[in-house]
Write a structure and sequence with these properties.
heterodimer; A: mainly beta; 2 helices; 28 strands; 49% strand; B: mainly alpha; 59% helix
Chain lengths: 372, 156
């Protein structure tokens, strides 16, 4: 089995991607106001199935709720739509969500129970949206203070009412979004020592000097990791929030992070490759590059062939391609297959329009010394 | 035409400063500006001089890069530390630079990078030697160390 399976889906940058429950369909958004649903054919490649046009500005983020089979998209036109599949016609029908924001929506994620979703925006407002039966639409409740700049990323805690938010004001925060309307029964925990109402700021971390591009809770929810524009990976434990474990990365900034297990993280970003980081005691250490570049055939061309090509094309050799799988920054990492609480397969989407599936076990076998 | 057309005054207004919702750094948590810091910096300058006199360049470098006065309100304190670091960099032989950088930890390489970039802007005459240091520091710290200099809002 191959360590990775790549596919060039689009010619331009992908802004967001998400899979359905059995990975047979993929929703992808690019820099236009249309987003696409791809279906996996018999050979295992994704082919374009539907084009969904409803937004009037570029679609910034998409998410697919696997169990309830709903898609949510948010866009620069300050709106979000929830799409339901009409089984008779096979068409996706949009429902408007009133976000009540005056700037672009930047990021959207369904909660683990899929009864609500959170939308981050440039209006420095986090909108928690849920469905109301009576008026038959989605309403939103705002979390404003003390977020002071554009929200870039959100991640839900497994308990469905806590969430972490990373924003352009260089901070990573944890909020409570427990709602009486949705019959939440929050319990106290390391993140929430006292029962707190909706929009309470539970934790604020400011160890980053740069915008917080990606944030993620560990599978149990006891740890929180974030990556920021100052080329660092930061991890904090629920039980000891004063000590943030910080790892200085030696490449360009990372934009997205994913926990493979409680002690292993995969990060990716402007360095074009997913990299493994391990939590060892009180430190986050770099584990390995997961994209092992194939060595270019050195000296494969004879001197005569080289001069011939130089004469014909004026170029010495074709070095216009980077030797990484992704030819541009990776925008998003998604866990696609989880077994026993560990991620066994994840997918990366990049600014080069490629979507690549990475198999964790095969990578571990092929790259020596990986600890996952 | 009215007089207003001639006036270019409005083009010099920093409109973003009047934006109430613009992000302002929270300055209340800055502990710099203290007397302690300036004392530390002067002491360090003396100690580093001593080390350089006894040719302990490696130790001088580590000491010079320790606890930089980041964001200090008094520019003379920052200046003094900057001069200390520059004097150390000048004292190194080209062949010794590699081993010196290899013995630095990642945060120390970051501080060195900050001073190198300050050097590029303040002392362009030293650019040649600073570029040599820069090349070797990038080998150790990678592009990430340069990124951290760029995002640093307080400045060393």
């Amino acid at each position: 089995m191959a360590a990775k399976k790549e596919q060039q889906l689009l010619t331009g940058p992908i802004s967001g991607h998400a899979y359905n429950s059995d990975l047979s369909q993929l929703v992808v958004s690019d820099t236009s106001s249309t987003f696409y649903i791809y279906k996996k054919d018999a050979k295992g490649t994704f082919t374009k199935d539907k084009e969904l046009k409803k937004h009037i500005e570029r679609v910034k983020s998409v998410d697919w709720a696997p169990r309830t089979n709903r898609i949510v998209t948010c866009s620069g036109d300050r709106n979000a739509y929830v799409w339901n599949l009409d089984l008779e016609s096979g068409e996706w029908k949009p429902t408007l969500v009133l976000l009540r924001i005056d700037r672009a929506a930047t990021f959207v994620r369904w909660s683990p129970a899929e009864d609500r979703f959170a939308v981050g925006s440039g209006a420095r407002i986090l909108s928690i949206c849920y469905y109301e039966e009576e008026p038959d639409w989605w309403v939103s409740k705002h979390i404003k203070k003390p977020i002071r700049s554009t929200i870039l990323c959100i991640d839900w805690h497994p308990n469905n009412y806590l969430l972490a938010v990373g924003s352009c004001d260089f901070k990573c925060r944890v909020f409570s979004s427990a709602l009486k309307e949705l019959e939440d029964k929050p319990t106290t925990s390391g993140w929430m020592p006292k029962l707190s109402k909706f929009a309470t700021l539970l934790a604020e971390f400011d160890t980053s000097e740069g915008w917080v591009h990606g944030v993620k809770f560990s599978p149990s929810g006891d740890k929180l990791a974030w990556v920021s524009h100052d080329s660092s990976v930061n991890v904090v434990e629920m039980g000891r929030q004063e000590k943030v474990f910080r790892c200085l990365v030696s490449t360009l900034p990372l934009t997205t992070v994913l926990f493979l297990s409680e002690s292993a993280l995969v990060c990716a970003g402007h360095d074009n490759i997913p990299s493994l980081y391990n939590l060892v005691g009180e430190e986050v250490v770099f584990g390995a590059r997961l994209d092992v570049s194939k060595k270019k055939e050195v000296g494969g061309m004879s001197a005569m062939a080289r001069f011939k090509q130089l004469d014909k094309t004026g170029d010495k050799e074709d070095d216009s391609k980077l030797n990484t799988t992704h030819q541009n920054a990776i925008v998003e990492l998604r866990a696609t297959r989880i077994q026993d609480g560990k991620v066994k397969q994840f997918s990366s989407a990049g600014q080069d329009g490629k979507v690549v599936m990475w198999d964790v076990d095969v990578l571990a076998a092929s790259i020596g010394g990986l600890k996952i | 035409m009215s007089k207003a057309v001639d006036s270019r005054q409005f083009r010099t207004i920093d409109i973003d400063a009047y934006d109430e919702e613009a992000y302002q750094d929270d300055k209340s948590t800055d502990v710099t500006g203290s007397q302690e810091h300036s004392l530390q910096v002067s002491e360090r300058a003396a100690q580093v001089k001593q080390l350089l006199n006894t040719s302990k360049c490696g130790d001088a470098l580590t000491l010079a890069l320790k606890d930089p006065p980041i964001g200090h309100l008094d520019a003379s304190v920052k200046d003094q530390n900057y001069q200390t670091v520059m004097s150390v960099l000048k004292a190194f032989r080209t062949t010794d630079i590699d081993s010196a950088i290899n013995s630095l930890s990642a945060p120390e390489v970051d501080v060195l990078m900050k001073y190198l970039y300050k050097g590029f802007s303040c002392s362009p005459d030293k650019a040649a030697s600073l570029l040599l240091w820069h090349e070797k520091a990038v080998k150790k710290g990678g592009l990430g160390s340069i990124v951290r200099v760029m995002v640093d809002r307080k400045g060393v």
